[in-house]
Write a structure and sequence with these properties.
About 40% of the residues lie in helices and about 15% in strands. The longest helix is centred in the middle third of the chain and has 18 residues.
């Protein structure tokens, strides 16, 4: 596969429940194909530890999913939530996440490094140490690296966004437009807030129901806003986009994905 982020992508948080809901790996892969997905982004690590999806008990399932998706020409990237701490620990987290990706044989890693309390514990120096270590190992293995943080970084004082994103080959900001006046309103704000980042812009849309956190109010709102988001992504000529997240996406959303993939 390719260490590129392009086309339509979808986040997965917990893999086993997704496979169960889709009645098996083969059906999951067929759904990804029908929805026109180019990539699936699965959580692989948090801090300096592998996430449940790739621990020994679930690793065979991950490998089965990886193979099935690749047979459909769907790439698989992993995402990692860094915790930070000291410079040394931040660098260790980056190295650990990269090694997990290398061992899995996936296509790249997204840094889910968000601002605000409860997320990355550190400033620009720690962020640089983490992202530098991650990029170094991934680049040596010819794997991709992307940033996936808050879409309007200035809203989070002390957020070391620039220290992370300078190491990324793609910028995939979380444009969670559910509570915004319109999809276009939120997307334009995100474009402006990220104008200084000179790598491809791959916005992440909202594909779940949940008011107050950027999710959509109803299944129909989720579907129609996704349709508009896809139209705007195409209008702007972005290389790709993504959505959070597979398990939370209502059937109406998936119907829009299938319809627009076949258009």
């Amino acid at each position: 596969m390719s260490a590129q982020l392009a086309g339509r992508n979808m986040f997965i948080w917990r893999l086993a429940p997704v496979v169960k809901a889709e009645i098996g790996v083969a059906a999951m892969a067929r759904k990804a194909e029908a929805a026109g997905l180019s990539g699936v982004w699965i959580k692989i690590a948090e801090g300096d530890e592998p996430f449940d999806n790739v621990r020994p008990r679930q690793l065979p399932l991950f490998k089965e999913v990886l193979q099935a998706l690749r047979e459909k020409k769907v790439s698989v990237w992993g995402w990692h939530v860094p915790h930070g701490g000291s410079v040394a620990h931040a660098a260790e987290e980056g190295a650990v996440a990269a090694q997990i990706a290398i061992d899995l044989g996936i296509d790249g890693v997204l840094m889910d490094a968000e601002g605000g309390s409860g997320y990355f514990n550190g400033g620009a120096v720690e962020a640089d140490a983490y992202a530098s270590a991650l990029r170094s190992k991934l680049s040596a293995a010819k794997l991709g690296i992307a940033m996936c943080g808050n879409d309007i970084p200035k809203n989070f004082p002390g957020y070391a966004f620039d220290a992370f994103v300078k190491h990324a080959r793609f910028n995939a900001p979380q444009v969670y437009y559910g509570a915004s006046p319109s999809v276009n309103n939120r997307l334009e704000r995100a474009i402006k807030a990220n104008a200084h980042v000179k790598v491809p812009f791959v916005p992440v849309g909202a594909a779940w129901i949940g008011t107050g956190d950027g999710g959509c109010e109803t299944a129909s709102a989720c579907a129609e806003r996704a349709r508009e988001f896809l139209r705007l992504v195409d209008e702007h000529g972005f290389v790709g986009c993504s959505f959070w997240h597979w398990m939370g996406a209502p059937a109406a959303f998936w119907q829009v994905m299938v319809e627009t993939a076949q258009a």
